[in-house]
Every structure is written in structure tokens, then in C-alpha cells.
Design goal:
heterodimer; A: MetI-like fold; two-stranded antiparallel ribbon; B: about 425 residues; D-Maltodextrin-Binding Protein, domain 2; 2 domains; about 10% strand; transmembrane helix (chain A); transport (chain A); cell membrane (chain A); membrane (chain A); ABC_transporter_permease (chain A)
Chain lengths: ~290, ~425
């Protein structure tokens, strides 16, 4: 007979591995943040001095702001578009749904580094496909150096992020919509409800769990975004696409200031855990 | 039943003993682990020379062997820093950049002092300037080898077709750039997506706007970055961007893409260094030319950015036998005979090489031209920011330069940001002073 104790026994191996490879490194990073580091070598214990540096670090605040923008844009576009597309697809022929779902999902299967390289070419000011296409349709005036300009770089990268995430939202929403009892829609149709009315009053409320899941997932992904930014802009031009992870990477790997990089990592961890806690609290609400 | 013939057991035991001794001898052999950045193409593409010289030098190392790992030039400084933090540095490494970063490793005790080997082997070709650049608190920690120079690669055919003469003054340089722009040809192929290329251009402009003496007052003295001469350099760089001398979207163009733009004949010039000579010589479909950028400010002597670029460094953790073998190996690598190999097979001109030697050796005309012009002004040549600034300042410089030339910061804002980062580095004891 299974008891609580036996359940913990079964959990013990994975829990031990988790503590060893996740818990311990987190504690280690936390410990790093209290020391002064020089070229990767630990120096004096400096208490909370690294945390004090955060207040005066303009790059940190810029990066945090960019992360916030990224979260909002990621929540806004891929989720909204994914929801609408999934609602439209759900009423189509099963074969169409299968094919289109697979096509939408393809970008999700591409590693972000590869996506970054592909979109780096598309945005390239010399031979980029986007500018070429704009010129071909007579919109050459809109052509620009998308990743090289302060005012377009972050938004251009977010388009790539949305492109990679959108298909995932479609698939999750499709699965959720298909699990809704069709009788509810039939009843609404008999009552004369329009497509929009059914979407607004039936589909959207019944997808609350999926939306919360996708929102949480998107927010966490948006906070820990790194590879796409690094391969395309390295946080530039200037600090235009700097996010917390690129700031951490530069501080750790390029400057060798492990203490301050650890401090930034702890802050990032706290933010991600806070988002997760908030989302789980919402998910528990009936 | 016996499985072995009578009398075979002692023979087998003896054979086993011999084999065991051989294995022990093999494992006891001195192995020098080496990291270097000599690739077969791209930046510092001296791989063929390195391969040949290992074969040449190994027999003179008293049985020691070299175990080589190639790390890309762009990533080796970061890889080496991680190795320092993990206390896993290779016995011998050839990395960039030099002075300030080398001092950082010496400061934390990661490198072996090489003063005794300098005394043992002489290494006369490395003069006091270079020895100073590789020193920290009175001890020498590196053996610099290559000389990096900045210059203007140009397409002579494009100049001739458009009736434009090779400039000898800064005003002529500006006039040439304007003329190319008017003819729809990109004057200067420049890409700064990788963030580091602009630092070299600024190094060049600082020296040609401020001169070596003022640079030294800032880099090693108390003069702030926000001075009139440095401001002229910053404004000049920014004006090149604003005036359309660079391709559109240069902050989104890679270094290699910019070089390709020049090599394809779509740009008249590109301003970069000798570290890419091999790619330039191999990739150009036209007769390549090079000239030195004339002084920007009146009264500043002609010169160019030069530096030791990279250096050989020995790990403090290496055993004495390995250190000795590494020093003997370095002695072989920088010998006159090896220097010829570096020049002919690696397009890399080691420190101590004279223009006369270059003339005699089988080097391409572009190599001879670049070095004869660059080495003609040894007293006026100035500093490479990459090899002089600590990494914390370099990271600020990268971003602030993108903002400056992108038009998102003024020269005053740029210099102010540099002064702030510079003062922080000084306060943290990161500044390298000769």
C-alpha cells in the first residue's frame, strides 16, 4: 500500500538530483553575490555592496525595462493572435486544422540561435530580404536598418520572438478549444448567438486555464531570453536591446565580475519566481 | 592442462615489465598544452605557420611535445578568463588583448613571471616598450609576438576609374570620401554589429587627433577623456557616420560583411588592421592597396595605431619542466628563422622584423607595403584601446561607441560615459600603467 513515506522514497532520487544540479548552484550563485571578484577569482566578503550597485547601474534598469516591454509585447501579440487563429481553425475541416497547425508550429521547432541567424539575414541592411521585399513592392521608403537603429531594434527582435512563440499558442489553444463540450456552442447557436458572441462569452472564459499557462510561460521566457538577442545584436546598438540576461552574460563572461553577475542573476531569479507565484495563485482560483 | 608453453611465463613477465616502463616513460613525457588563436581563415589566420612551426620546434624541446588547441580569436579571451577562474589554464596560451588584460591575470596570480627566461634567452628583439607593455608590478608576464597596425585598405582601380588620388592629408581624405559618395560608391566599408571594430577605428582617430603624448596623459595620467583632442576624435568619427561615409545601417552589419563589401568592389576603402591581411589578400579580386590615414588635427605627427596585439603567456600552475619547455618553445617561435615562416605562411609580421627582412622574404606586396608604411613612424605610433583598457571599460566603450556613431549620443555624452567607467576602473585598481 502506498503511503506518504513511500511516495517520498520514490521522489527521493529525482529530488536529490534536483537539489544537486539546481538547488546547490542557486545557493552557490547567491553566495557569489556577497563577494568581490577579480577576473573570476573570489576576493573579500563585501556583504550587500553588490546589491547596492544595482541602484546606480543604469544598464540594469534599461535592461529591466526592456524585459518588461518584451513581456508585454509577447503577452499581447502571440497570445492574442494565437487565440483568434485557434478559434477560427477549430471550426474548419480536421485535415486543414492538422496541416495549418503543423505549419504554424514549425517556427517553434527552430532553435532560437538559428532563428536569430535567419532573421539577422532578413533584417540585414546590405542584403536583407525585408528591405528587398519592401523595395520590390514600391515601399522602399520604409526600408531601414532594423536591428541597427535605436528605435526599431527591440521591436524588430520582438517580432522574431513572437514568430517563434505564436505557433505554440495556436496549438495549445486549439487543443483546449477542442476539449470544450460542443453542446455549449450548439445551445448558443440555437439561442442565435453570433460567432463573436460565442467567442467572447464561451471560448475566452473557458480557455482561462490555457491563457494563464501560456501567459506564465511567455512571461518567464521573456525574462530569460538570451540567445536570440545575443546572436543578432549582442544587446546593441548601444543598449537598445540590452536585457537582463545579456547584461549578466557580459558582466560574468566578458568582465569577469562574478559577484555582480551573481547579484543580477539573483534579481532575475526573484522576478521569475514572483511571476510564477502570481500565475500559480491565479491558476488555483476557480 | 597448461595454456602457456613451458618457459614462456618469464618472457611474458619481462615483456609486460618493458611495456609498463614504456607506458610510464610515455606518461612521464613533458607535454605543453597550448591554446592559440591561429585559425586557417578570418582574423589572425596564421594557422599554417603555427602548424609548420610546431613541427620545426618540437624536436628541440628535449622530448617535450606540444598539445595544441585552437580557439577562435573572438572567443579566446573569454575562454581564457573562464580557465583562470576555474584554475585550469593551459600551460601556454597565445591570446589577445595584451597589457591591461594580461595585468589582470598577473594580478590574480594566474601567470608565471618570465624574467628569468628573458635573461636566459635574451629575446633582444623585444624592446623596452614591448617589455613594459607585458609587465605588471616590475615582472614580465608575456612574450609579445605579432605587431598589429591599422591602415586604410583601398581599391586602387576604383580610385583610378573615378579620378581620385590617394589622399595624403585629412582634407584630401574627406574630399575623396565625398567624391565617392557623390558617385554612389560607399566610401568606407564599415560594420560594427560585432561591437569591437569601432574601438579600433576610434583608437586610430584618437592618435591622429590627439597624438601619442596626449593619449598617454589620459591613459596613464590624470587627464580626463573629456578633453578637446579626444572630443575632436569622437566628433570626427560621428561625422563620418552622419556624412554617409559608411554603409547604411553600419551598426547592424558584421565585420566580415563589411570586409566582403569592400572586397566585392562595392566600397572604396575599409579601415582595419593587419590581423585580417590574409583574408584581404586572398579575397580581393583587384590589386589591393593600403595607405595610412593622415593626421586629423593640425600639429599631430603622422602615425598609426600599433600594438603587440597578442602575447604568449605561461600558466603559473605549470610544472617547472613544462615552464622550461614552454620557454624553449617560445624562443624557437620568435627566432629569426621562425619569423620568416610567420611572415610567409601566416601573413603575420613578428616584433623585431625589419623592413629589410620583409623585402628579402617571400611576402606579398600588400604585406610589405602595410608594414613599411606603418613601421616608418615608430616614435609617433600610438595605442590600441583594446590592449590598453581594462575589460570593464572596454564593455562600456563598445556600447557607447555604437551610440555615438549611431547618433544617439553626443561627443560630450560619450566622453562623459567613458570618464565615469574609467574612474570606476581606476578606483578598482584595474588600470594598467607602464
Amino acid at each position: 500500500m502506498l503511503t506518504t513515506r513511500s511516495a517520498y522514497l520514490f521522489l527521493a532520487p529525482s529530488l536529490a538530483l534536483y537539489l544537486l544540479f539546481v538547488g546547490l548552484p542557486i545557493l552557490q550563485v547567491f553566495g557569489f553575490s556577497f563577494f568581490d571578484w577579480d577576473n573570476g577569482i573570489a576576493g573579500d566578503f563585501i556583504g550587500l555592496a553588490n546589491y547596492g550597485r544595482l541602484l546606480g547601474d543604469g544598464v540594469f534598469w534599461t535592461a529591466l525595462w526592456h524585459n518588461a516591454i518584451w513581456v508585454v509585447l509577447t503577452l499581447a501579440f502571440p497570445l492574442l493572435a494565437g487565440l483568434v487563429i485557434a478559434a477560427i481553425l477549430a471550426e474548419r475541416n480536421a485535415n486543414v486544422v492538422r496541416w495549418l497547425g503543423a505549419i504554424y508550429f514549425i517556427p517553434r521547432t527552430i532553435p532560437l540561435v538559428v532563428a536569430g541567424i535567419i532573421w539577422g539575414w532578413i533584417y540585414n541592411p546590405i542584403f536583407g530580404l525585408l528591405n528587398f521585399g519592401l523595395e520590390a513592392v514600391g515601399l522602399g521608403g520604409l526600408a531601414g536598418a532594423w536591428l541597427a537603429q535605436d528605435n526599431t531594434a527591440l521591436l524588430s527582435l520582438n517580432v522574431v520572438g513572437a514568430w517563434t512563440f505564436f505557433g505554440f499558442c495556436v496549438i495549445i489553444y486549439l487543443a483546449a478549444i477542442q476539449s470544450i463540450d460542443p453542446a455549449l456552442y450548439e445551445a448558443a447557436s440555437i439561442d442565435g448567438a453570433s460567432w463573436w458572441r460565442k467567442f467572447r462569452d464561451l471560448t475566452v472564459p473557458l480557455l482561462r486555464g490555457s491563457t494563464l499557462f501560456l501567459g506564465l510561460y511567455a512571461a518567464i521566457e521573456a525574462m530569460r531570453f538570451f540567445d536570440l538577442v545575443w546572436v543578432t545584436t549582442q544587446g546593441g546598438p548601444g543598449y537598445a536591446t540590452e536585457v537582463l540576461t545579456t547584461h549578466i552574460y557580459k558582466t560574468f563572461f566578458l568582465v569577469g565580475d562574478f559577484g555582480y553577475a551573481a547579484t543580477l542573476s539573483v534579481v532575475l531569479l526573484i522576478i521569475v519566481l514572483s511571476i510564477s507565484a502570481g500565475a500559480f495563485a491565479l491558476l488555483r482560483k476557480p | 592442462m597448461t595454456l602457456l608453453p613451458r618457459g614462456s611465463l618469464p618472457v611474458l613477465l619481462a615483456a609486460g615489465l618493458v611495456a609498463s616502463v614504456s607506458v610510464q616513460a610515455a606518461t612521464a613525457q613533458t607535454v605543453v598544452t597550448q591554446w592559440d588563436q591561429f585559425a586557417m581563415a578570418g582574423i589572425t589566420a596564421a594557422g599554417p605557420a603555427m602548424d609548420e612551426l610546431i613541427g620545426t620546434c618540437e624536436p628541440d624541446l628535449g622530448g617535450a611535445t606540444v598539445l595544441r588547441t585552437i580557439a577562435p580569436s573572438i572567443g579566446i579571451r573569454d575562454s581564457y578568463r573562464l580557465a583562470v577562474s576555474a584554475n585550469k589554464t593551459p600551460d601556454l596560451a597565445y591570446t589577445w588583448p595584451a597589457a591591461s588584460v594580461l595585468a589582470g591575470y598577473a594580478r590574480v596570480g594566474a601567470l608565471a613571471p618570465l624574467d628569468d627566461y628573458y635573461e636566459q634567452y635574451g629575446w633582444e628583439g623585444i624592446n623596452d616598450f614591448y617589455r613594459g607593455r607585458n609587465s605588471f608590478e616590475g615582472a614580465i608576464y608575456g612574450v609579445p609576438m605579432e605587431q598589429d597596425l591599422m591602415g586604410v585598405y583601398y581599391n586602387p582601380a576604383l580610385f583610378e576609374e573615378n579620378g581620385i588620388a590617394v589622399p595624403t592629408t585629412y582634407a584630401e581624405f574627406q574630399a575623396a570620401a565625398e567624391a565617392f559618395k557623390e558617385k554612389g560608391i560607399t566610401p568606407i566599408a564599415f560594420g560594427n554589429r560585432d561591437r569591437w571594430p569601432a574601438t579600433n577605428t576610434l583608437s586610430l582617430l584618437l592618435g591622429l587627433s590627439a597624438g601619442k603624448a596626449v593619449e598617454e596623459e589620459v591613459l596613464f595620467g590624470d587627464t580626463p577623456w573629456a578633453n578637446e583632442q579626444f572630443k575632436l576624435a569622437a566628433e570626427t568619427f560621428q561625422s563620418w557616420a552622419e556624412n554617409g561615409y559608411f554603409p547604411n545601417g553600419f551598426n547592424g552589419i558584421g565585420y566580415d560583411e563589411a570586409n566582403a563589401l569592400f572586397l566585392s568592389g562595392r566600397a572604396a576603402m575599409t579601415i582595419t588592421g593587419t590581423w585580417v591581411l590574409q583574408d584581404m589578400a586572398r579575397g580581393a579580386s583587384f590589386d589591393l592597396g593600403v595607405f595610412m590615414l593622415p593626421p586629423v588635427a593640425d600639429g599631430v605627427a603622422p602615425g598609426t595605431m600599433w600594438g603587440e596585439g597578442s602575447q604568449w603567456q605561461v600558466s603559473a600552475n605549470a610544472s617547472q619542466e613544462v615552464k622550461d619547455a614552454a620557454a624553449a618553445y617560445i624562443d624557437c617561435l620568435i627566432s629569426p628563422a621562425s619569423r620568416e615562416v610567420w611572415v610567409e605562411k601566416g601573413f603575420l609580421v613578428p616584433i623585431g622584423t625589419t623592413p629589410e627582412e620583409l623585402e628579402q622574404w617571400d611576402a606579398l606586396p600588400i604585406v610589405k607595403s602595410f608594414y613599411s608604411q606603418g613601421l616608418a613612424t615608430p616614435d609617433a605610433n600610438f595605442y590600441d584601446l583594446h590592449t590598453t583598457l581594462p575589460e570593464s571599460v572596454t564593455q562600456v566603450l563598445y556600447a557607447e561607441l555604437q551610440r555615438l556613431i549611431g547618433g544617439d549620443a553626443t561627443a560630450d555624452e560619450f566622453l562623459g560615459a567613458m570618464d565615469t567607467a574609467w574612474q570606476t576602473a581606476i578606483d578598482n585598481g584595474e588600470r594598467w600603467v607602464p
